[in-house]
Write a structure and sequence with these properties.
It is a single chain. The chain is built from 8 helices and 5 strands. By secondary structure, the chain is of the alpha+beta class. It folds into 2 domains: about 1-80 and about 190-205, Glutaredoxin; about 85-190, Glutathione S-transferase Yfyf (Class Pi), Chain A, domain 2, CATH 1.20.1050. Strand 4 (about 55-60) and strand 5 form a beta hairpin. Helix 1 packs across helix 7 (about 190-200), helix 3 packs parallel to helix 5 (about 155-160) and helix 5 (about 155-160) packs across helix 6 (about 175-185). The longest helix has 23 residues, at about 90-110. The chain binds glutathione.
Length: about 210
Amino acid sequence: MKLYYTPGTCSFAAHLVIRELGLPVELQRVRIGPNPIVVGDGRDYRQLSPLGYVPLLELDDGRLLREGVAILSHLGSQDPSGRIAPEARRIELLSWLTYIATELHKTYSPWLFHPEYGDQPGQVARERLVPRLALVDRHLADHPFLLGEDFSIADAYLFTIADWSRALKLSLDATPHLAAYLERIRARPSVAEALQAERAPQAQAAA
Ligand SMILES: N[C@@H](CCC(=O)N[C@@H](CS)C(=O)NCC(=O)O)C(=O)O
């Protein structure tokens, strides 16, 4: 399969799950923005993703999977142990994925990836994120991961998104459990592997 990704964006969640599961993948870097292109061959990326956003997963049979939550769910179903997306916790998992996608991801991202909007959306994002991250923090006070003992696809997504707090200059002092959780996940070998692969010369060459 091929993952279309952009460093520093939400596509990292899918990449992290791929590394956690040791799945074979070809990385295809995308330059997002007003004229998104596939880095390397310069193709107009909107031919693949009409709104020009990552992630996009191309399966070995050529099918294209769009939308981060769907991609994470597909990848989760590839885990033979079932631990990264446990079927018995399906609704709880869906609840967290939806919360991250709609309450967190889309509160951070318009400002982060569109500096042309100026700073006001960033200020609005910070104010909206404080209570939303506090809810997560209360949950993590009693649980090492969102579903309890095991790392799940929701953790890959939450780590990717909540880590943008640094770029947004949003202090996590008021959410210490979340801050500790992010450091715990950052220490996982999959994070280093994914970061290294995204920085590989082949991925950088035509950037
Ligand atoms: N609904 C999409 C949104 C993905 C998304 O927002 N991707 C951002 C990066 S995190 C992007 O590619 N933005 C490009 C742009 O805003 O031009 C999903 O959940 O997969």
